[in-house]
Specification:
The structure is a homodimer. Chain A is an alpha/beta fold. In chain A, 53% of the residues lie in helices and 13% in strands. In chain A, strands 3-2-1-4-5-6 form a six-stranded parallel sheet, with helices on both faces. A three-stranded mixed sheet of chain A has the order 7-8-9. In chain A, strand 5, helix 5 and strand 6 form a beta-alpha-beta unit. Chains A and B meet through helix 8, helix 9, helix 10, helix 11 and helix 12 of A and helix 8, helix 9, helix 10, helix 11 and helix 12 of B.
Chain lengths: 289, 289
């Protein structure tokens, strides 16, 4: 009999991730705050839906959550209808939300008290990675449950790595976001500079993207940035949530993040320009006002 | 009979570039300010050396220059012993130095008055690219001489592109440097953050470098950055020269470069720490003090 897996949170990421689990033959039960989305998922993929996170998690071998932020993670895990209220001893809880390491450690501790293993497992690769099953999963927790949960996560990932104790997955995701923040701004400054200098920005980017200036962001975003289209990718509001976690963590452990802090402020300007839902590449919009 | 080419400036870039020309069968004459270096080149590659830029450039079909900065470019091209004093009408002058677009336009005009074509042609790819003949060359100038000079530059390049009128090559190189500056700082912040958070930085970088945070800088520098080795690549003093050109140009044309300006200041701190000759990845050193 195949393992039973609950998936809580069917947003743009969770919906296809849960679909990959079902396609791999797992016995999947889903929960979503907006029930219509769960019904849509069941209609498309089969499986079952449940009225609460706890109801979805009952008798499951694995419970995966993919929700919005720290408060959402706490609600669906430790709340009165949360999954920990129903999970059996020996079951494994995996949270794919990008959240704080503090919350990861808190849920880890509460789960451990009940004999349940917890793995913080934020992902990178975006909506496209979720849809084509090629996410990178960065995990924190203990190695025995990680080894059991890895084949499940492999359903929607091309790399699943344990990076340390509880919270290490979240911290690694923050490193990822810190590395990217300065890069998107640099790309925006480069494109705006090229346009102000009267260059053909498309031709310039085509040339420099073949050298050491190459990056995922340059390859995948420069055309839409020069065209001013910001409706396709990771939203500014979500990036600000991630950067807020990065900056709070850095404040606590004495790390210096001057460019990440500056870029976070630039994103606040984008929000003020009405760009809460724009893609993160919209940083160029404030340079071109 | 093969074309005659003069190469002026045999530094870490020019020395191997001139060598590639000789290996391709061009009739090469070199000049270098420190004559011993020119003798070393002749001993290794054959060809001839000359006592002044003008002497090297006399009767040449093509003259390539690769020197330090704006003043050096003006000295070897427009100075009393500069190449323009000796070049024949119809010959082509190519400057590979990373210099200002203003100087490129100035030399272009002075050359044009003498019936000589000028192409500003800064490169990317670094010392390794020069040595293995895989530079990217970004050109500004007129198309007819560009078409004639391109096969010569192909000797040491994998891509040679005309990006617009005089100065367009230099402006494109500046776009390249602007895109890279924020990225190296972001990478430094990410690594320092990982270390402060108690993560295994090598493991973290290995994981995130396979996702959207991937970049040339991450792939080629994170190991040396975590080890604190900064002696292998493009020097801080040279990056500050490039960023100074970027920032002056931006001031003149109204472009905003907030992160490039901030990173330029960080590099001034690295210089004050004694890191004038350190690699640009040494930005991490000021985060780890």
């Amino acid at each position: 009999m195949s393992a039973r897996v609950a998936f809580v949170g069917l947003g743009v990421m969770g919906f296809p991730m849960a679909g990959h689990l079902k396609a791999k033959g797992y016995d999947v039960t889903v929960y979503n705050r907006t029930a219509a989305k769960a019904e849509e998922w069941v209609k498309k993929h089969g499986g079952k839906s449940a009225p609460t996170p706890a109801a979805a998690a009952r008798d499951m071998d694995f419970v995966m959550t993919m929700v919005g932020n720290d408060d959402d993670v706490l609600a669906v895990t430790t709340g009165s209808d949360g999954v920990l209220a129903a999970m059996a001893k020996g079951a494994i809880l995996v949270d794919h939300t990008t959240a704080s390491a503090d919350v990861a450690r808190k849920v880890f501790g509460l789960a451990k008290d009940k004999g349940i293993a917890f793995i913080d497992a934020p992902v990178s690769g975006g909506q496209a990675g979720a849809e084509n099953g090629k996410l990178t999963v960065m995990c924190g927790g203990e190695s025995a449950p990680f080894d059991r949960a890895k084949p499940v996560m492999d359903s929607y990932a091309r790399a699943v790595t344990l990076l340390g104790a509880a919270g290490a997955g979240q911290l690694t995701k923050m490193v990822n976001q810190v590395c990217i923040a300065g890069r998107v701004q640099g790309l925006a400054e480069g494109i705006a500079f090229a346009e102000k200098a009267g260059l053909d920005a498309d031709l310039v980017l085509d040339v420099i993207s073949k050298g050491a200036a190459q990056s995922w962001q340059m390859e995948n975003r420069w055309k839409t940035m020069t065209e001013g289209h910001f409706t396709h990718g990771f939203a500014v509001n979500w990036m600000r949530k991630d950067l807020s976690i990065c900056l709070e963590t850095a404040r606590a452990n004495g790390a210096h993040l001057p460019v990440a802090a500056l870029v976070d402020q630039f994103y606040s300007e984008i929000q003020a320009m009405g760009g809460q839902r724009w893609d993160t590449s919209s940083l160029i919009a404030r340079l071109e006002r």
